[in-house]
Structures are given as C-alpha cells and as structure tokens.
Inverse folding.
C-alpha cells in the first residue's frame, strides 16, 4: 500500500520558474497570442432578456458593413451532434435560458468592425417571466440532480433537545467570479474536417473529450493547444460556451482562423462562477464543547440551463465529530447564468459557515476556538467510517498558534483598541481532499542526452512547467537541465484536468510510471530515439483511507470605529499537504489562495439583480478583487512531512487549500475586534456601521 | 478612415495606418504582433496592458493610437533590450512575483514607472503631506499603494512588493505604517 | 463602437468651433473615461477633437497668489506640484485617492471634472437609464444602490459623481474657466455640476461645445488646515462610498479652540460634489470639539434620503465628517465607547 518515496534530488529545491524569463518579458504565448495568418475577429451577440425566445434576427445592416464576413446565428450555425449540455449547445434553437446567453456572432476583419457590427444586428426576442431571485426557502428548492447524498444518522432532533449548548445560525456566501486575468480566449480554425483550437484551458484532453462528440467529430480530428494559461481558478476547468461559439463560427469560414477573447463584462455571465450558498447550522454540544448534534441544511443557487450545485456540505461531512448528524444539500435552479467550478468548490464556501459556527460555539462554551477543535477531533472519518490518512489539523492549529502569538490573545471581543481602531484576531481550519486522478499518460523519449517528457498537462500559474520537470528529473535520476518538458497539447499523451488540487500528483504518477518503464526497457545509457509510455493508476490508498489535507488560518484585522473601514493587518497559514515539490512556487500557490480568501472575506460579491437576471457589477472596477494595498503581511508555513499514502511523490495537492478557511478566519477576527458577528459574506465595513 | 501614426516601439520606429478607434494596446497586439502588454479588462481596471509612453506608465487599452503620433512606447519586452533582463525582471523571477504571468509584463512596466516616480519625489496618497524635493523612500506601504493599479488574481502581491523593493535597491524593509 | 472622425486641435478656439458645429462631436483629453465609454457603447460621437497638443498643460501662479491649472494638466502632475502640495494638501490627497497611478498619469484636470457616473446601470446599455437614455427609467431605484446618492437625488436618477478631485475643488471654492462659442466664462466649481432633477442626462451646466480650459485655485488662507479622506470598499483603486474634503480655520487665541470657518464637501453621496453648507454654518464660531463636529454632521445629514441598500452612507458620512474635522482640529482619537446614533 505505502509507496516507496521517490528519492529527492531536484524536488524539494526552490527552482526558479523555467517559463519565468519568457513570462516577465511577455513572450510566452497565451491563447490569443499564437500567430495565425489573416484572422477574423469575433464579437458575440448576447441575450438581453433572462428567459424567452428569439423571434427574429436582422443582420442586414451588419452584413452591409465593410469588413464584415459573416453573422452566425441559430438559423445558420452548424447543427451539433449532441445537445444534452445546455450550456454548450448554443445556437441550436431559439430558446433563451439566461441573460447574456450567446445568440450569435459577428465575424469581421478587425476587432473594431466586429464590435460595431454586433451593435447593428437587431435581435428581437419575446420575453417570458423569469425567476432569478435566490432564497433558501424558495418552493423550487430540491435535491440536486443525481441525489443529495444526505447524511442522516442517529436522532438529530432529540440530541439538539438534550444539548446543553445550541448554536442555530444561518450563513451565506454570494456569487463569486473567478476572474482570471487572462480572459477566456480561443482561436479556432477548421482545415477540412480537422479543427484546431488554440485556447486557454486547464485540461486540453478533457475539453476535447467534451467538445469533439458534440461537434460530431472524432477526438483525433480536434487538436487543442494551450501551453500557457493566464489563470483559471476552476473557470477554465470545463469548456464553456465561448469555446463552442468560436468553433461554430470558424466552421462557417473554413480555412480561416477566428479569434475570440471574451470581454471582461461577458465573462460574468459566460465563463462560470461560484453560485450563492445559504447554510443553516444547528449544532448541539455539551458544556465542555463536545458536539453531540450536527445539523446542516445547505442550499445553493444554480441555473436551469445546466445544473451545478455548490456543495457546501462537503467539509462538514468529515471535519468534526458529532454522533447525531443530519446533513443535506439542496439546490435552487433559476433562470440565470451557468455556474461552475471556482477554487475549492464546496470547501471554500462550506468552511465559511462551518468555521464561523465553530467560533460561535467556542464563544458559547467559553472555550478557546482551538481547544474546541481539539475536543471535536474525530477518530475516524464520520462520513465513511474509514481511518484518516495523516490528519494533522491539530498540529497545524498548534504550530500556527505558536507562530502567530495566539497565546497572548485576550479572548474578549472589543478588548483591544489603538487610536480609533479596534483590533481583533481570528482562527479557522482549512481542509481539502487529497486525491489523484487515474488515466494520465506520459511519454519519455531520449535524444542526444535530452529526455523529452510529453504529457497534455496544464500550467495555469501553478508551476507545472517547473515542478513536473523536477519530478521527471528525479524519476529519471538526471539533472533537470536534461529534461525537455512539453505540456498543453492534445498531440501529447492524455492528461487529466488541472483541478481539484489533483494536477501535479496525477501527472507525476504518469511520469513516474513512464520513467520506470523507460529505465527498465532502455537502461541508463539509452540510444537516441527510444521512448516509453507510462500511465497513472488509481491510488489504492484512497479506498482504505479518508485522504485529506488540513491547515490552519490566522488573521488579524482592524476596524475603524467611526468609518467602518476594515484593514487586514496580517495573516498566517500553516498547512499539512505532504511533500512540497518546489518550495518557491508552492509558497506562491498558498499565498495566492489566501489572497483569494481575503477577497472572499472582504470584497467579492456578484450583485445579481433579480429584475434583470444578470450580475450588474460585471467588471473589475465594480466587482472588487483585492488590490496590492489590501494585502499586507501574509505568512505561509507547512509541516515538514511526506505522505507515502499519496504515492511515490509523497505530495498532496496545494491548489485550493490556501483559500479554504481564510475567509472564516477574517470574519472571526472581525467579530473579535468589534463584537459584531459576520454571517453573510463579504463582510463589508458598512455593515458594521449599520447595525 | 485610416490615419497615419509614427510610433517608436521598444526602440524600433513604426509607421502605421490606424482606424481612429484602435487603441494603442490593439495596435501593438493586433497590428504589430507585440504581445508583451496583455488585455485583461480593456477598460483601465486591471493594469495588465500597462506600458511606458514617453517614460510614463499608462494603460494602453485607454489610449487611442491615433492620438500618440511621435510617442515612444516601451513594453516589458522593450525593457529587456537584446534579451538582457532588467533588474526588475530579475527581481520578479527571484521573488516568484507572479504565477500565471499574465499580469506580469504590466506589473513590470508599472513598477519601472514607480521607481522613476519615487525618485522624482512624486507623492502617493500614503506619502506625508510634508513637501521637499527628496526622492521618496519606497516603503512596503508606498509600493503597495503605488502598485494597486495592477491587479494580480493569482495573488502574488506579497512577492511583488518584495520584488519591487529588491529592484529599488532598498536594503531594509520598512515597517508598514498605520493610517 | 461606431466609426468616428478624428481631428487634432491646434488652439482652444479652433477646438470649440470644431465641436460646436457638430452635435455629435466631442473632445478627447486623457481618454480614460471617454475610451471606456466608446467601447461600452454609452456614447457614440462622430468626431473626436483631440486636445492633446493644446497649450493647456501648465500650472501658473496668479497675481493674487492663487494658481491657474491648465485643463490638460494630468492628475498626477497636479498632485505632485509642490505649490499644490504646500497650499492645498487636500487637493493633492484627493487626486492621489482617485483611480490608479497609470490612470492619474493620463487623466486631465478638465476631464476629471467631466467624468461620468459609475452607476452600473448607466454603464450597461442593456438596462434602462434616464441619464444615458432619457425617459427609459432609472434601474438603480430598486436595484443595486451601494454607490448611489443619499443627498439631492430625484425620482429620475440617484447616480453619484465619481470624482475625488472635484470634491476637493468644491471645498476650495475653485473656479472653472470655460471657453464657449460665445467667449470665456467663469463658473464656481460648486455650480458646475447639477443635481439630477428631471434632466439627469445633464451632468453639468455646460453647453455643447463648451471647453474647460483651466481651473483657478484661490490663494490659501493663512492658518487653515485641510485634508481629504475617502472611504471605499478596498484599500486602493476603488470609487468612494463616502469622501470628505475639509478646510478648517481655527482661532487658536480663543480661550478654547474655536472654529472661525469651515468649508466641507462630501463625495460619493450626490449627483455633484456636495457642499455641506448647513454644517459649515453651524461650525462657524463653534468650539472645536467632537461634540460640535457631531452636531454639524448630524445637521447636514438630516437632509439625507437614502434608498434601500445605501442607508449605511448616512452613518458613514457622519462618521467620516467627524473624524476628518477632529483630525484637522488636532483632537486625539476618541477613547470612549463608540456611540450608536
């Protein structure tokens, strides 16, 4: 079961990013930047109603414009072979399911002309009454498609009735938008029956697997190229409608490349986002803090065009003990844009409710919040009954407490004041599943002392170019300078998606398998041109252990009493994630996750106006992500460890866990500073004034 | 409808004929194939398109190319003549001041402008009201404020501050100050 | 973005003539707001007259000790000018509170005054907006109002003016120099911007073709202190929820420090920079105490009519006014329990 760990030579060293020199100069090609001959530019036509149907599209004026080549609509677009996927099956009929939905596209010889021509296309639509108002008590709330996977053990109501302490509170998280800095972008060109997409995706092979059957072509007829990805955070994990639109539009102009970069405004409706959640916790405990009753009813918004629930109950399934449990996930489908993955789907919002609730429970019990967590450490996974694999939550909390100076904290709220500022500190746990996806393949080929390692993996800032090179070097026991890594192309062997913190572990398993085969077949002095392929198998440990990473987040905030301004003074995270492959890039991953957590805590909220059905603050001036001035002292630490259950690499993923728990730690710090409990994110300073 | 414009871009003279609607950013990327500045928002809200125009850092997405006749434009690539990385480039690499790299050329142009502005004694909102002609010391707070026009969604801000400070040659990291 | 002609103006009079004769012509200065709006389809001029080569980029000293700021002086240059920093730190601070370093390097003095609201519905041509499409309705009423007005709004429009600089200029009693088809006129900044009434499409009193050529700052009154404070949803690069520009003239010789006069303007709360005249009246001659400042702020905000979603601005505006005045009066931070009004 436990693997022999890969001997570390390059891994574990803080190698500077191999793609760095090109990236700082701006030379590494992102999707839009691949040179193509004489491209056409696409500007989309989008619905301005939330529900209904298109009754007419008049493109006469647009087509009369000099430079306009085509206007594609549902009346002339390629028929798809499969229209099951409501998000991707665009331009197939006259139905409108959400505001902002693609209704067509204009192709022109310059971006300016395409945009102007799109304004000249007259789309007439018939609106039907829509529902875009998320409420947890909406009558249409129901189990998610495929079941709610409820937990119901023991007798929750009786245990609550018998509990000495009860916390019964509702928490909410808003729509949050991934907003990678590189917009979703695709260049598409059909050459005969062969389609090439230069795009920005977290998985070239998974995207091909989704798109090719819909387009009615074999996977081999679709090549997807994506060597550099300008951020994704989940929103480039699954292909979205923009990729399909570009492919459909290019089909109308065979041999001609079509370029489409989604505008920032359109991204808010068309490229996925984190849906809203409402989480009602009903927790019963003994006076000593031991949880006896654990009730959670979570509801997530979703889209009637395609369902995606934000499964906020995920972390509550395994985080803490509690014999009597009822945990349910529900969903409310609305006439709104299609949500999707955003960094730590489930865990990030789920740990907002859970970890603020734990702070409230600690206060109710008169316990230190770290001690409360110690007292509710489960012996086995309450969900599966399996033993935990290296659950080091308490180690992280204690290590963080020591580094942060938690012992000096006066637990009373509003106890610390400097000038006009109230100062407080807070803590929260972090968790994320540690899994490895089977099925990735890597090919190693030797030529003149250089090992070319090919796998269709992705680097969306995660450091894949560098870390996977280090893994390959150690797998082959050569210097990293002798590795030539190639990623981000379906012409390379299959790779699973860069998502769910599974990327590096899954791809490394393939590289290790390939290296093993290569050395077995070709020895240490291989001839030129020899190669070997290896495939990642399932990790058998996942069937015997509950595999998760853990962490602890600490935050200090100050709140100005007269103005309500909130400033984050400092933040510190300690994580247990197995072996760290590249400390330099790993630290950045975790810092970045925490920074996104700051946005979640204090800034980010998609303002969905139910009257119109779309997010109205749909740009980067009105939807606030943290700026440099919001982030002051951030510290990242990790436990020095290796995890043989995770495979020979000994590493679990680190892409998401930095975000998880960060928002709750800040919300808890606001309470400690001011005495006001933040239960609805983001915590705006103005809400502290209005109370 | 085409207007002639002469621009010096990364040291090279270019004579272009542009649609008046064409922004400097689109002129660079779509007409000249200079992909160093990036399009993140196209509305001056993210800073990914930042270039130096006659030495000043500007959002190239909000400048009409037609209005810039005679201007000298430097992109992050142009800050590395003949491929020789600048001190700012090197600091970004060493401090790992980026992840995905998409905002990075804009960050580097912006940071290069910041060094110049501070050396010229130009204040930011966190600078004391006190007026003198001295260069302004780039404390962490000064850098954070001055670099706030460049969003980084990967969240590399902590490392960006370290990189700018390294490039500025600051030997000691000054404390953050309370407002 | 529909096609437009482009012309470079050689002198202000020529610029005015070129724009005045074409109803859909407009000026191009820094472009930070205009190019944004061209792309969004909020405005669709058929001619841009570029002011970039006009000789309007200097800051000159006036005989009375004031400053004449050319309309094309960039925000960053105005903020960095040693005379401005020395005489009007409030103005420098307001400028530096706005936008980003890059935008301040492009944005001009005239353009900043004329920037348009950040109301999300104004910026989205797919939603009704009386300011953008007169008579279509106000989507902000009943919608997302966090950045909307609590003072001086109408049933037709609750948008706010987004400028920081204009708030400081209002508190400074600066004057705008305007060249129009009929010659030069001078307008106090406090009278430049309109309240929306039933013509929200008109942000200012200017007529088509009018060109702001300069802003004149009065000489600083000796002994006054001024500052600018902006409250926003993130620490930098965000529009104001509420901002306060204040000039305080204290009589230090009185038995207890007394306010001789105060000039206060609020940002983020109205369709125009909001001069807090009621508060100013109450403060004249009042002791320089937190109690006076609270009373004055409360009196000013009595007129506030928030809508659902921006009620917090009333409390916030009071709090910021008191905090800023206390800072200018040199009062220490309050150490008593915070008061909930």
């Amino acid at each position: 079961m436990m693997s022999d760990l890969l001997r570390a030579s390059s891994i574990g060293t803080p190698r500077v990013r191999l793609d760095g020199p090109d990236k700082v100069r701006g030379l590494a090609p992102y999707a839009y930047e691949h040179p193509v001959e004489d491209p056409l530019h696409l500007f989309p036509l989008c619905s301005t109603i939330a529900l209904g149907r298109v009754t007419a599209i008049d493109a006469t004026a647009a087509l009369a414009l000099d430079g306009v080549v085509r206007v594609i609509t549902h009346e002339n677009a390629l028929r798809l072979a499969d229209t099951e996927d409501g998000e991707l099956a665009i331009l197939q009929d006259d139905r409108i399911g959400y505001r902002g939905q693609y209704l067509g596209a204009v192709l022109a010889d310059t971006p300016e002309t395409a945009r102007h021509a799109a304004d000249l296309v007259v789309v007439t639509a018939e609106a039907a009454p829509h529902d875009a108002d998320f409420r947890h008590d909406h009558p249409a709330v129901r189990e998610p498609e495929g079941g709610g996977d409820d937990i119901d053990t023991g007798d929750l109501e009786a245990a609550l009735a018998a509990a000495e302490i009860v916390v019964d509170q509702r928490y909410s998280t808003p729509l949050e938008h991934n907003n990678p800095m590189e917009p979703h972008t695709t260049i598409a060109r059909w050459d005969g029956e062969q389609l090439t997409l230069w795009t920005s995706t977290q998985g070239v092979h998974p995207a091909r697997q989704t798109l090719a059957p819909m387009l009615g072509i074999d996977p081999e007829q679709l090549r997807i190229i994506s060597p550099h990805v300008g951020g994704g955070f989940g929103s480039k994990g699954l292909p979205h409608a923009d990729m399909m639109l570009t492919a459909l539009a290019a089909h109308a102009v065979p041999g001609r490349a079509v370029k489409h970069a989604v505008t920032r405004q359109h991204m808010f409706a068309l490229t996925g986002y984190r849906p809203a959640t409402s989480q009602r916790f009903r927790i019963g405990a003994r006076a000593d803090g031991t949880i006896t009753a654990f009730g959670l009813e979570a509801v997530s918004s979703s889209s009637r065009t395609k369902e995606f629930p934000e499964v906020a109950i995920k972390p509550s399934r395994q985080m803490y003990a509690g014999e009597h449990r009822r945990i349910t996930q529900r969903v409310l489908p609305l006439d709104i844009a299609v949500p999707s993955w955003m960094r730590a789907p489930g865990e990030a919002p789920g740990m907002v409710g859970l970890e603020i609730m734990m702070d409230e429970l600690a206060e109710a019990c008169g316990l230190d919040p770290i001690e409360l967590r110690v007292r509710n450490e489960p012996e086995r996974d309450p969900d599966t009954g399996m033993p935990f694999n290296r659950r080091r939550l308490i180690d992280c909390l204690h290590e963080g407490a020591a580094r942060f100076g938690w012992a000096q904290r006066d637990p009373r709220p509003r106890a610390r004041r400097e000038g006009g500022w109230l100062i407080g500190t807070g803590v929260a746990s972090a968790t994320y599943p540690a899994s490895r996806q089977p099925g990735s393949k890597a090919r190693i080929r030797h030529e003149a002392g250089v090992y070319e390692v090919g796998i269709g993996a992705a680097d969306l800032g995660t450091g894949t170019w560098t870390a996977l090179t280090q893994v390959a070097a150690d797998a082959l026991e050569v210097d990293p300078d002798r590795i030539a890594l190639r990623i981000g192309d379906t012409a390379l062997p299959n790779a699973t998606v860069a998502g769910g913190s599974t990327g590096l572990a899954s791809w490394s398993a393939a590289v290790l398998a390939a290296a093993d085969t290569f050395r077995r077949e070709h020895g240490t002095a291989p001839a030129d041109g020899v190669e070997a392929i290896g495939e990642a198998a399932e990790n058998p440990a996942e069937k015997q252990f509950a595999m998760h990473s853990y962490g602890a987040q600490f935050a200090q905030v100050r709140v100005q009493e007269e103005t309500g301004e909130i400033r984050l003074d400092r933040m510190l995270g300690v994580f247990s994630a197995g072996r760290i492959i590249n400390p330099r890039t790993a630290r950045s991953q975790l810092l970045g996750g925490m920074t996104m957590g700051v946005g979640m805590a204090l800034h980010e909220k998609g303002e969905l106006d139910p009257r119109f059905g779309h997010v109205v603050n749909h740009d980067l001036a009105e939807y606030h992500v943290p700026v440099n001035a919001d982030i002051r002292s951030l510290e990242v630490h990790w436990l020095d460890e290796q995890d043989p259950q995770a495979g020979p690499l000994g590493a679990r993923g680190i892409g998401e866990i930095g975000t998880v728990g960060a928002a709750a730690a800040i919300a808890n710090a606001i309470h400690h500073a001011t005495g006001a409990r933040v239960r609805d994110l983001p915590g705006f300073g103005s809400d502290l004034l209005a109370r | 409808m085409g207007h002639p414009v002469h621009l010096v871009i990364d040291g090279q003279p270019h004579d272009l004929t542009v649609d008046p609607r064409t922004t400097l950013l689109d002129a660079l990327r779509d007409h000249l194939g200079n992909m160093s500045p990036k399009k993140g928002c196209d509305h001056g809200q993210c800073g990914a398109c930042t270039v130096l125009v006659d030495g000043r850092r500007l959002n190239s997405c909000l400048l009409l190319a037609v209005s810039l006749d005679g201007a000298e434009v430097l992109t992050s690539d142009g800050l590395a003549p003949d491929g020789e990385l600048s001190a700012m480039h090197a600091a970004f690499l060493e401090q790992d001041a980026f992840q995905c790299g998409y905002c990075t050329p804009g960050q580097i142009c912006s940071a290069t402008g910041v060094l110049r502005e501070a050396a010229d004694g130009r204040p930011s909102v966190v600078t004391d009201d006190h007026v003198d002609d001295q260069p302004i010391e780039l404390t962490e707070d000064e850098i954070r404020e001055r670099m706030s026009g460049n969003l980084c969604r990967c969240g590399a801000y902590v490392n960006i501050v370290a990189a700018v400070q390294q490039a500025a040659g600051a030997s000691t990291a000054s404390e953050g100050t309370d407002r | 973005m529909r096609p437009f002609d482009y012309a470079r103006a050689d002198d202000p009079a020529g610029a005015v003539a070129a724009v005045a004769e074409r109803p859909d012509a407009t000026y191009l200065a820094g472009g930070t707001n205009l190019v944004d709006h061209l792309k969004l389809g909020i405005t669709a001029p058929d001619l841009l007259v570029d002011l970039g080569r006009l000789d309007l980029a200097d800051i000159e000293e006036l005989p009375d000790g004031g400053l004449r700021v050319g309309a094309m002086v960039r925000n960053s240059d105005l903020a960095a000018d040693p005379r401005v920093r020395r005489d009007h730190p409030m103005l420098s601070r307001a400028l530096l509170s706005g936008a980003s370093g890059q935008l301040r390097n492009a944005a001009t003095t005239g353009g900043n005054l004329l920037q348009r609201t950040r109301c999300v519905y104004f910026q989205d041509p797919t939603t009704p907006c009386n300011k953008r499409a007169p008579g279509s309705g106000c989507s902000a009423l009943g919608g997302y109002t966090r950045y909307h007005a609590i003072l001086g709004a109408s049933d037709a429009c609750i948008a706010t003016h987004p400028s920081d600089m204009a708030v400081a200029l209002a508190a400074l009693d600066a004057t705008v120099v305007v060249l129009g088809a009929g010659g030069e006129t001078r307008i106090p900044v406090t009278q430049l911007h309109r309240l929306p009434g039933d013509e929200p499409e008109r942000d200012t009193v200017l007529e088509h073709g009018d060109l702001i050529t300069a802003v004149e700052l009065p000489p600083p009154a000796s002994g006054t202190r001024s500052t600018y404070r902006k409250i926003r949803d993130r620490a930098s690069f965000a529009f104001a929820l509420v901002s306060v520009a204040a000039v305080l003239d204290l009589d230090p010789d009185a038995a207890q420090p007394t306010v001789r006069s105060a000039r206060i303007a609020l940002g983020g709360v109205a369709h125009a920079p909001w001069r807090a005249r009621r508060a100013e009246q109450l403060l004249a001659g009042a002791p320089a105490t937190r109690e006076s400042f609270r009373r004055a702020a409360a009196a000013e905000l009595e007129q506030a009519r928030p809508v659902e979603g921006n009620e917090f601005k009333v409390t916030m505006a009071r709090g910021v006014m008191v905090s800023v005045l206390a800072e200018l009066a040199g009062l220490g931070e309050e150490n008593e329990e915070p008061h909930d009004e």
Remarks:
- Chain A touches chain B through 66 residues (CB under 8 Å).
